[in-house]
Amino acid sequence: MLLGALRSFWQAERVTPPAATPGRALVIGAIAMAAVVETVVRDDLIWPAASLGVLLVALPALWVRRAHPGPAMAAVFGVVVLVDLVALARGVSWEGLNTMVVLLALPFALFRWGSGREALTVVWLMYLAATLGALDETGETADAIGGFVIVTLTIGAGLLVRFAEEARGQRQERARAEEREQLARELHDTVAHHVSAIAVQAQAGRALADRRPEAAVEALEVIEDAASRTLEEMRALVRALRRGDEDVDLDPGRRIAHLGELAAVAGTLELDLVVEGRADQLRPSVQAAVYRLAQESITNAARHADGASSVSVRVVVDAETVSVVVADDGRPAIVSDDRGYGLIGMRERVELLGGDFSAGPGPIGWRVEAELPRRGNVA
User: Fold this and answer.
1) Three-state DSSP class for 317?
2) From CA 240, how far away is CA 236, in angstroms rounded?
3) What is the pLDDT of residues 72-86, one digit of tens each?
4) pTM over 0.85
5) Helical segments of the chain, H only
């Protein structure tokens, strides 16, 4: 398991860091002043010039630690290891400045922003520095263990922040994908539906214009109503997009009580509508789903049902479920590999509410069936 995690992290790409701010320069300047003050006031320092030099060398690395975490880490702790080796060779117990604690920002940045390859390649330098620091004459086992623990906790903190940020990014991406899918469904179920109705009525009006002028006028009235509703619903979608409000209801408010309006969508097909049970007590999300299922199915029947003269919609509401069956009386259709987005959108709506969906050729014509839990899985 550990090897698998290391192998996975080895392939991790570098994370793009934020740009440097003026505040970072102020912090680094304060570190430099603190190091100088500590060097002056402490009389127990061994090799004070070397101690101050190490920290001053680290200041540029602290500045670029996010953009270049691997080289920054390697440069600073390479110098620390070199000084430790010289101290061991001369039998000197060198500890450096207390201000050097700020160097823990380097391994944190390495595992927060660096690629997995560079992080695992240079992190050993810090463990080597902690080991060499415990090998002098005054070194104690507890100090060595404490050093390793601090290094490991710093690395763990960098990884924790990194993975938390990645998880947040993934959640945001999933949310954006869900929003895109919802908008696609709404565009298909509202705008595309009304445009289809306009096309059907325009064809009917043109066919009847010579023989029944009054029927052509009625078709124009239906077209006008559908065009107005399309404009209204497009504006609602645009408002939702501009406001970016997650609580905006993208559904324009169609409910089971509005199913009778779909007679205009059926065009020349006779609409047989039956609703059983207390549909008015259903949650809005369930009612909207039932309406959209019927709307899309009737639109498809009007456009594609070969030889059909009628389409039936049956909605049954009982104590636990809501069942919807839409069927036309045309010739059984052949399922195409390219079925557009209508069936996909219907299936997604039903599954989001925890229901079951099926569509295909029936004994005659095309048949769409759905069963939804009465309360649904979402509000």
Assistant:
1) strand
2) 6
3) 999 998 888 898 888
4) no
5) 2-10, 22-41, 48-63, 69-90, 105-113, 116-122, 124-133, 141-186, 193-208, 213-243, 263-266, 284-304, 342-352
